[in-house]
Design brief:
This is Corrinoid ABC transporter substrate-binding protein. The protein has 341 residues and is α/β, with parallel strands linked by helices. It contains 13 helices and 12 strands. Helix 5 links the parallel strand 5 and strand 6. The longest helix is centred in the first third of the chain and has 27 residues.
Length: 341
């Protein structure tokens, strides 16, 4: 039989092992600071920004001072930094999604681009010695740049652009405006950010007032072509759904439908098609060119909106960059609905 001392010795060893495991886990999630990674105690200084991990779980991180070496893996963040006069903080960014609007073109062309088109390698990131990474949510997964906590442990901040979180139903109010506010606070330019946001809010309010004055509310599908008669239809998990609603339309697609054949598209009978146009190389096709290309697909010729050419083309970047460009798309779509009624 096991003696009393042997039984207690085993229990003691087990307890010590459990305590060691708890310490390892705690340090992994607290960066060794005895508090959740990114959070700060009340008596600490710095700038605390509430954000997310790649799964949309809330995270926060303390910046001792405004970032001065920023790597951007999402063109919408690059454009916002330009809007706020912060382009000199960028040490590396990715190529834009097609041709940039004139207000960004010259400045963006002078920015240093990372070697890889859209997601730099971890080695590239470390070589540039950033103090902040800004990008898509899916860039911070094991297959790409890794979890945000890994960068926190290196004392490198991560800001995931809110519009890229595929969770719930994003709106301009829940994604674009907080993105602007966070950037203003993080870089200590809150006045610039507030002024920029106020301009956007006024433009949105003007569209809202115009929409409220009309009774026409078209049924819509939001379509993107992938070539060879394959398409995706945007659902409520994308910001463009909110833009269409604000413009006075009703999205017939209640969930995301990705890369399907024409038969899935023909299951809908929209009054209007909002057609998200994709750039060809560095060139963004004009609305007329994009619509002409869609009309060439013989598989869709019997769709009512196609026959009547009730199509509104908007650039991919306008509806997917998660910044002030969404208001450009809102105005374009609202004007298109007005013309089609």
């Amino acid at each position: 039989m096991m003696s009393w001392w042997e039984r207690w010795s085993r229990r003691l060893i087990g307890l010590v092992a459990l305590c060691a495991l708890v310490l390892v886990v705690w340090f992994a999630y607290t960066n060794g600071r005895w508090q959740p990674v990114g959070e700060v105690s009340a008596n600490q200084g710095g700038i605390v920004i509430q954000n997310f991990d790649s799964d949309g779980n809330p995270m926060s991180f303390e910046y001792e001072e405004p970032p001065s070496r920023v790597i951007v893996t999402y063109p919408g963040a690059t454009e916002l930094l330009i809007d706020l006069g912060l382009e000199n903080r960028i040490v590396g960014t990715v190529e834009p999604y097609g041709e940039e609007p004139e207000r960004y073109r010259e400045i963006y062309s002078r920015l240093p681009l990372v070697t890889n088109s859209y997601v730099p390698s971890r080695e590239q990131v470390m070589a540039l010695q950033p103090d902040l990474l800004m990008g898509w949510s899916h860039h911070f997964t094991p297959a790409a740049l890794g979890d945000v906590r890994q960068w926190y442990e290196r004392n490198i901040g991560v800001y995931i652009v809110p519009a890229t979180i595929r969770k719930n139903q994003p709106t301009v109010e829940s994604t674009v405006y907080p993105f602007i506010d966070d950037t203003g606070r993080l870089f200590q330019v809150p006045e610039r950010a507030s002024a920029y946001k106020e301009q956007l809010q006024k433009r949105v309010q003007k569209v809202t007032e115009q929409v409220n004055q009309r009774n026409y509310k078209p049924n819509v599908i939001i379509l993107q072509a992938h070539g060879h008669s394959t398409y995706s239809l945007y659902g409520p998990v994308y910001l463009v759904d909110d833009i269409v609603k604000k413009a006075g339309g009703h999205n017939l697609t209640d969930r995301q439908i990705s890369v399907v054949g024409p038969e899935r598209v023909l299951a809908f009978d929209p009054d209007v098609i909002v057609f998200v146009t994709v750039s060809q190389g560095n060139r963004t096709p004009s609305a007329e060119e994009a619509i002409a290309e869609l009309l060439k697909d013989p598989n869709l010729r019997n769709m009512r909106a196609i026959r009547e050419r009730r199509i509104i083309a908007v650039p991919f970047a306008d509806v997917n960059n998660g910044n002030g460009r969404v208001v450009d798309a809102l105005e374009r779509i609202a004007q298109g609905f007005e013309e089609e009624k």
